[in-house]
Amino acid sequence: MNILVLNSGSSSLKYQVFNMKDNSVMAQGVIERIGLKDSIIRYKAKGKKERLIKDIENHKKGLELVIDLLTKGELAVLKTVDEINAIGHRVVHGGENFSESALIDDKVFKAIEECEALAPLHNPANKGGIIACKEMMPNTPQVAVFDTAFHQTMPKSSYLYALPYKYYEKYGVRRYGFHGTSHKYVSQKTAEFLNEDIEGLKMITCHIGNGASITAINGEKVLDTSMGFTPLEGLMMGTRCGDIDPAITSFLMEKENLTPKELDKILNKESGILGVSGISSDLREVIDAAEEGKEKAMITLEMFTNRILKYIGSYVAILEGVDVIVFTAGVGENSFIMREKIVNKLAWLGIELDKKVNDSIVGERGIISTKKSKVKVVVMPTNEEYMIAKDTYDLVK
């Protein structure tokens, strides 16, 4: 079975085609700047890469180009579009409706639409990808894989805010959590890698990239996660502020005469690592600046590290101990410098870093704690696209 995996953003379309017989990736790519002049198309198949510049008006036109690349020319991997047996979509928000992936029918599609108020930047784009596929491949089954689904095992005491209960009942104001597909994937793969029964593991998974979140997992159940009603809550991120005193919002709106939309832009696009460092949202550039002795960069790294440590520490308490700490995503998989800064401050847990191994691991899995360490520390590359393909396969096979 061939599965097309789509991740539709507001101006982008990422895709991969999986052959589920051997779980291989037949082709993959991304279209950026959809709706703008000079859209960028990157395509990889048969060990070769292509880069094209072409105006792509909308997601439907983008999908048409993807199908052309998959079925025509020397890098084609399919004879016709009919060889795509199912389509898996990343959908950011499923609200309380979905605790697992779902085959898309009219009822599921309507539920995705109803979540647009909770994820106005993401769900409309996800919906656009579903509509484009339905128009082009009306008989091909489609599956929605929700970022929020894995976190629906959280207890009410973890997901409720200390606000009047009526706002939860009326508007669904609660903590939902995100990056669920990644947290689910790395927790399962880590248990397999360690040859341990996942049901007996207390695990803290750290998805640390430009967007970042940490999740406390007992067996296959989420007890808590750092992102909340939106992906803004939790850790300091590339351009997101993470946890702040909520009174700051009304204070800034009054002092700066800001509209809600203007404030939202500041909190989501101008804060975090970029906002504090004044250098970049890319942690690599901030690390370089810190090594040059630039004060704001050094402060930024300490803040970033401390926020992660706060969540790990609190989740150790919630789990009543921890067996494994997992690092994943861009920073977690590739920055041995940040892993060392974080792990060395966890020595009180009986954790001992194997510096030589840690320094050698970039973008691959491995155990970076010593054999004497009381808690295993693992680097596990995430693969959300494969998880989407697997869920899609399981639902339609």
Protein described:
The chain is of the alpha/beta class. It folds into 2 domains: 2-146, ATPase, nucleotide binding domain (Nucleotidyltransferase, domain 5, 2-Layer Sandwich), CATH 3.30.420; 195-379, Nucleotidyltransferase, domain 5 (2-Layer Sandwich). Helix content is 39%, strand content 20%. It contains 15 helices and 14 strands. It has helices at residues 59-71, 106-114, 123-136, 156-159, 165-171, 180-193, 247-256, 260-269, 272-277, 283-291, 295-319, 329-334, 336-344, 355-360, 384-396, and strands spanning 2-8, 12-19, 24-32, 39-45, 48-54, 86-91, 102-103, 142-146, 202-208, 212-218, 221-225, 324-328, 366-367, 376-379. Helix 1 (59-71) packs across helix 3 (123-136) and helix 10 (283-291) packs across helix 11 (295-319). The chain is globular, with a radius of gyration of 21 Å. The model has no long low-confidence stretch (mean pLDDT 94).
Supply the key terms.
single chain, 397 residues, alpha/beta, Nucleotidyltransferase, domain 5, 2 domains, eight-stranded mixed β-sheet, six-stranded mixed β-sheet, 15 helices, 14 strands
